[in-house]
TrEMBL record:
Highest taxon, organism lineage: Bacteria
Protein family per UniProt: Belongs to the protein N5-glutamine methyltransferase family. PrmC subfamily.
This protein's record includes keyword Methyltransferase: yes
Function as written in the Swiss-Prot or TrEMBL entry: Methylates the class 1 translation termination release factors RF1/PrfA and RF2/PrfB on the glutamine residue of the universally conserved GGQ motif.
GO molecular function annotations of the record: nucleic acid binding; peptide chain release factor N(5)-glutamine methyltransferase activity
Record lineage: Bacteria, Pseudomonadati, Pseudomonadota, Betaproteobacteria, Burkholderiales
PROSITE patterns: N6_MTASE
EC numbers on record: 2.1.1.297
BP GO annotations: methylation
Keywords of this entry: Methyltransferase, S-adenosyl-L-methionine, Transferase
HAMAP family xref list: RF_methyltr_PrmC
Catalytic activity as recorded in UniProt: L-glutaminyl-[peptide chain release factor] + S-adenosyl-L-methionine = N(5)-methyl-L-glutaminyl-[peptide chain release factor] + S-adenosyl-L-homocysteine + H(+)
Name by which UniProt lists this protein: Release factor glutamine methyltransferase
Length: 273
């Protein structure tokens, strides 16, 4: 494939990926918006532009996620920087943000555990500037990405380098939310698709897929205000197990379905004082 001298429209038609991926990579390589692809459809690609585009396509054909190639992903209406230090934000997780926003009283304190790119914390803080949002992660590299995303989106978030609750002695929150690693060790999906390129520590607990969820549930009582909510994203077949974890000590225990109809988030309220 040699696209030097091809028009923008011809190059788009010649690319071997699906139409959406072709458009995203062409925009990225040429520094164009979607509108620019139309308004500049007849301009021709220089040799440098063609080489850059072909290199991007080659990376995608080897399986590298589009989000890592272009360095960003949209989530909850915001642009998030992503790198191979963090999990790529997914639409399913927007359900967790929506549930948190519905349950946050004015000025309430929220904790996002295992924040990764900062998607949950930044989305909440951007939507609710009155909220006191904290986020933690055990990965310093992930926190660097999250801080950059908070700054880029004008969101006020306190970030902590912490292995789960280790850095939170004595602190309490009105809501704790988390999208922890919940894929079981050896799951075939870890060797397929985009997951091959994402950080393993953000995907799997290297055990049965429930150990991180157990850790969060076990420690949450000491860090939730009376009546505070604990909301947990989990795997497609883990809702019943998570509800069972919450049965002792939590009220209003329930699960919520994502847009695909899968029980994706489960949670409950800490006992009132």
């Amino acid at each position: 494939m040699n696209l030097t001298g091809a028009t923008v429209s011809a190059a788009q038609a010649a690319l071997p990926l699906d139409a959406l991926e072709n458009r995203i990579l062409l925009c990225h390589a040429l520094g164009l918006t979607r509108v620019g692809l139309i308004t500049q459809s007849h301009r021709t690609l220089s040799a440098a532009e063609a080489d850059a585009l072909e290199a991007l396509v080659a990376r995608r054909q080897l399986g590298e996620p589009i989000a890592y190639i272009v360095g960003k992903r949209e989530f909850f209406g915001l642009d998030f920087k992503v790198s191979d230090a963090v999990l790529i934000p997914r639409p399913d997780t927007e359900l967790l943000v929506e549930l948190a926003l519905e349950r946050l009283a004015p000025g309430a304190a929220l904790l996002d555990m295992g924040t990764g790119s900062g998607a949950i914390a930044v989305a909440v803080a951007h939507s609710r500037p009155d909220a006191r949002v904290s986020a933690l992660d055990a990965s310093a590299a992930a926190l660097d990405v999250a801080r950059a995303n908070a700054a880029a989106n004008g969101a006020q978030v306190r970030f902590l380098h912490s292995d789960w609750y280790a850095a939170l002695a004595g602190e309490k929150f009105d809501l704790i939310a988390s999208n922890p690693p919940y894929i079981a060790s050896g799951d075939v999906h870890l060797s397929q698709g985009d997951l091959r390129f994402e950080p393993a520590a953000a995907l799997t607990d290297h055990a049965d897929g429930l150990s991180a969820l157990r850790t969060i549930v076990a420690g949450a009582a000491a860090h939730l205000a009376a009546g505070g909510w604990l909301l947990l994203e989990h795997g497609y077949d883990q809702a019943a197990a998570v509800r069972a974890m919450l049965a002792d000590g939590y009220t209003d225990v329930q699960s919520w379905r994502d847009l695909s109809g899968i029980e994706r988030v489960s949670g409950g309220r800490a006992a009132a004082a």
